[in-house]
Amino acid sequence: MAVMTRFAPSPTGRLHVGNIRTALHNWLFARQQGGRFVLRLDDTDAERSSEEFVEAIRADLGWLGIDIDREERQSARFDRYEAAFETLRAAGRVYACYETPQELELKRKVLLGRGKPPVYDRAALALTDDEIAAFEAEGRKPHWRFKLDHDATIEWDDLVRGRQHFDPALLSDPVIRRADGSWLYMLPSAVDDAEMGVTHVVRGEDHVTNTGLQLQMFDALGAARPRFAHEALLVGTEGKLSKRLGSLGCDHFREQGIEPMALVSLLARIGTSDAVEPFADPAPLVESFDFARFGRAPARFDEEELKALNAKIVHHLDYAVVADRLPAAMDEAAWTAIRPNLSRVDDAADWWHVIEGPVEPPECDDEMQAYLDRAAILAALVDWSNNPWADLTSQLKAETGRKGKDLFLPLRQALTGRDHGPEMAALLPLIGKEKAISRLHCE
Ligand code: GLU
Fold first, then answer.
1. Residue minimizing CA distance to atom 7 of ligand 1
2. In 147, 171, 260, 298, which residue has its Cα 20 to 30 A from 421's Cα atom?
3. Is residue 227 helix, strand or coil?
4. Is the beta carbon of 43 within 6 A of some atom in ligand 1?
C-alpha cells in the first residue's frame, strides 16, 4: 500500500519549531517511501482558526521546501464526522453525558483524594429516562463520550517507542463532542486518518494516550489501523519546551538570516542517532531517514547550533542560489571570495559596500595623518598575494610601537569608512592594492 503521511496543524497560530519538526519528519518519510504527504488543516474550531494562519502555514512549509501533495480541511468534512458519530452511536459506542464541568471536577478531586486515578465513572450510562428528562427540562444539553471497550487491551508496535500497551479500564471515555454540537479533536482526526488512507501517523509523544483511544475508534468504525510513530518532544537548551521555543517560527529564523536548509538539517536529525550535518539539499536526509534511529530522550534544540550550521551551509551556497539576494553589482568572484567569511547571506551586502566604496575618509589629527601616510607607503610594498593585512599591521607595529586599537582602528576607519565591520584580513585583499592605498588618507 502506498505510504501516506499527514501533518495536521490547527490554523490557530503560526508554526513553531516543534510542529515544523513533525511536519518535516512526515514529509521526509513520505518522500523516502515514494508516498504522499497531506496537509490537513484541523480547523473545526471556527472561532480560533483563521485564513491568515492557513496562508502562513502554507507559506512557511513552502519556505522550508516541504511540498504538499494534497490539502484537506476538517471544516469541509463535518458530514463525515456526523456519519461516523451516528455509526458509533448505533453501535452503542457513544453515549450522552449531562455533568457540568464543576461536577466533573468534583468527581476528579474525590478520586484523586482517595489516591485513585481520575477515570470517568460512566455515571451517565446509569441515568434513567426520568433523570435524563429532568436534565433536559432544566435546559441541560448533553456532551458525548466514546465508550471504550474495557475487554479489548490496547496494543500497538510504535515505530519509535516499540511495543505499547494500555489498559482501557484505566482511561476515561473521551469526550468527542461538546454540548453545542462542536467536535473535539479526537474523533475527526481518527475519521480523517481512516477515510483518507493515512498509513503512518507521525506525531509528538504527547499524543500517545490519544492513539490508544483512537485505535479503539478505528476498530469500532471497522477501519484499518495506520502505523504510529511518536517522536520524543523538543526541548530548549534549558531542558524544556520553553515559551520562547514554542513561539520561534519561520519569520524569526528568516530575520536571523537562517537558511531554510539549516533549519531542515537540524530539525531532521536532532534526537536521532544520526549526526547533524549541514546539507544544502534535503536528498541525503530523505535517503537516510529511519524511525529506528529516533531516540526516546527529548530532542534538544539549540539556536547556537543552528547558527553554526547555517554558517557552514552559507559557506557552500552557489552564486546562482543567492544572486537575487546580493547587491546587483556583486558578481560570482566576489561572492566566492566573501562566502567563507559569512554567517548569513545578508551580511554579504555589508562587505560589498565596503569593498566597492566610496568610503568616507576619517577626520584626523596630525599624528593620525602621519600614521596613515606611513601605512600608505608600506601598503605599496607589502606582498599582496599573501595576507597583506598581517604583513601591513606587523610592520606598522614594529615601526610605530602602536598596538591594539591604536594600531588597527585608524586603518579600519580609513579603509572602510567605519569603526566596525567585516574582518580586515579578509576584506583587504578584496579591496585590493590600488583602492586600499588611495583610501589611506584623511579628510
Ligand atoms: N491538530 C492536532 C495537533 O496539532 C493534530 C495532532 C495529530 O497529529 O493527530 O495537535
1. 8
2. 260
3. strand
4. no
Candidates 228, 349, 293, 270; CA nearest to 17 is 270
User: Per the structure block, which three cell numbers stand in for 75?
Assistant: 471544516
Decide: 210 in ligand 1 pocket, CB within 6 A: no
Ligand 1 centroid – CA 10 distance (Å): 7
Binding site membership of 10 for ligand 1 (Cβ less than 6 Å) = yes
Give, in order, the Cα–Cα distances in Å from 431 to each of 98, 360, 373, 378: 79, 15, 18, 16
Distance CA 252, CA 246 (A): 12
Cell 494500555, residue?
A: 166
pLDDT of 245: 81
Q: What is the pLDDT of residue 241?
A: 64
Q: Is 39 in the pocket of ligand 1 (CB under 6 A)?
A: no
- The closest-lying atom of ligand 1 relative to the alpha carbon of residue 204 is 8
CB distance 9 to ligand 1 below 6 Å: yes
Answer yes or no: is the C-beta of 369 below 6 A from any ligand 1 atom: no
Q: Which residues of the chain are under the pLDDT cut of 50?
A: none
What distance in Å separates the CA atoms of residue 326 and residue 90, rounded to the nearest whole number?
Answer: 65
Sign of CA dihedral 409, 414, 420, 421: negative
Q: How long a stretch of residues is the chain?
A: 443
Report the SS3 class of residue 34: coil
| Residue indicated by cell numbers 429532568 | 134
